[in-house]
Design brief:
It contains eleven helices and no strands. By secondary structure, it is mainly α. The longest helix is centred in the first third of the chain and has 25 residues. The two termini are 32 Å apart.
Length: 221
């Protein structure tokens, strides 16, 4: 029963974020590109209260698995325009839910939760802020890479990811400050490279998975 309640509130949480974003979009108060990133950042925080409310990893798989389908339909039918932004073809929201599904499957256990948290938070905040800042202020694209990724966006991704990883490691492990620093920096660099390499949408899959696996390797899991 406890797990069922957690799953119920998981859906309430996500649809609440979508509902607020839809209301802001319909009233013309916020651009759809911003509502998309608001949902992108907000949904990532699901993992923390889900970890408290849901005991079973099998039950925890249900919300992201369901949203793989919901997000696919929304992208095709433009059901939740606030979530889709101005894009009509990107599978980014589907990959977002899929990355959550895979990371929950791999790292739901008590000792491994930090890898799940790191992967999703780096994607939510790092990738989310990088896209917004890069689109608004980024002037120079990254050399060699052909798609639209800017130097400013990548810098925001690096700094944000580093801060998130430092906070996660400080509160989760007993490493020295020096170890926390270099592990966080290397992982943030890896996440930034992945975000720059993959086109918008695909980064929602490869950034969280790559971040979680790299951190797992560096910590010595």
């Amino acid at each position: 029963m406890h797990d069922l309640i957690g799953v119920f509130f998981s859906f309430v949480f996500v649809f609440f974020l979508i509902g607020i974003s839809e209301a802001l979009r319909i009233k013309g108060l916020v651009n759809p590109a911003i509502t998309r990133k608001f949902i992108h950042i907000g949904v990532g925080h699901w993992i923390f209260f889900a970890r408290v409310l849901i005991d079973s990893g099998a039950w925890a798989l249900l919300p992201p698995a369901t949203f793989v389908g919901i997000n696919y339909l929304s992208g095709k039918k433009r059901i939740f325009k606030a979530m889709e932004g101005n894009s009509s073809s990107s599978l980014g929201t589907v990959f977002y839910a899929l990355s959550l599904l895979i990371l929950v499957f791999l790292f739901w256990g008590e000792g491994n939760f930090i890898y799940l948290a790191a992967g999703i938070m780096v994607m939510a905040w790092g990738d989310g802020l990088a896209a917004m800042v890069g689109k608004k202020w980024g002037k120079r694209r990254i050399p060699v890479i052909q798609h639209v990724k800017t130097l400013v966006g990548s810098l925001v991704m690096l700094v944000t990811s580093f801060i998130i990883l430092v906070l996660i490691l400080i509160f989760s492990f007993s490493q020295s400050p020096g170890e926390v620093f270099y592990i966080s920096l290397l992982t943030a660099l890896g996440a930034t490279i992945l975000e720059a390499l993959f086109r918008s949408g695909w980064d929602n899959l490869f950034v969280p998975l790559g971040t979680a696996l790299l951190l797992f390797f560096l910590v010595g899991g």
